[in-house]
Amino acid sequence: MRIIDASGGNLEQIAEEVAAVVFAGGTVILPNDTSYLIGCDPYHYEAVDRVYAAMGRPDNRPLTMHVATAQEFLEYAPHNPLAAAAKRLLPAPVILLVRKPAFVSDELAAGLHTLAFRVPDDPFASLLLERCGPIAGTTANPRGGKHYLGDSDRSMLPQADLMVQHGPARYNSESSIVDLSGSHARLLREGAVSEARLAALLGPIERPTVKVRMPPSTGSVVRQAQDDNGKGSG
Question: In CATH terms, is domain 2-224 a member of 3.30.930.10?
């Protein structure tokens, strides 16, 4: 895997090198705001397959679309008032789920009716995405393993054609995950962006519930769940 240290390099030139790899159907590991991601051109399906293979990712777990700006995100979510309201939040360490646009393939969405988006709150990540985005990707760490935050130990990273090293991630916590595909925002995971902050911008926040069945003598209880339901990561 070729590695570029961007800490003291020409960032515009580095963005051009990343773009050359992405546009040629390569896979890349790039800095994000909460970790590093592995990704590729979302419309190059052989590259998408290589990301899945590198991560050992199940086919029913879609990748997340990473875009440079809130305006670009809104191009995928027209006529969605919740997405329009979320524009005031972005960029931010949050994954937003919207209904899959008709022009996005079912394969990229893993057959789901939603598609996940990120607009990273990191200037260098934004610069890269502005040049070569959108990028379909996921967090570059083994499933259930430690996130790579930009430290020197790269041993846990998957294989890719190119990696750009740019110091530690800005946030040392997971991104929040919010489903905007319905009439109300649903918080699937509370992370770097608090529920209170999301509610202030998006209105009432719902949380999915899971019924926990108990023995007949004790009845059943319902608990709140914070789960991404396999709808994206990063």
Answer: no
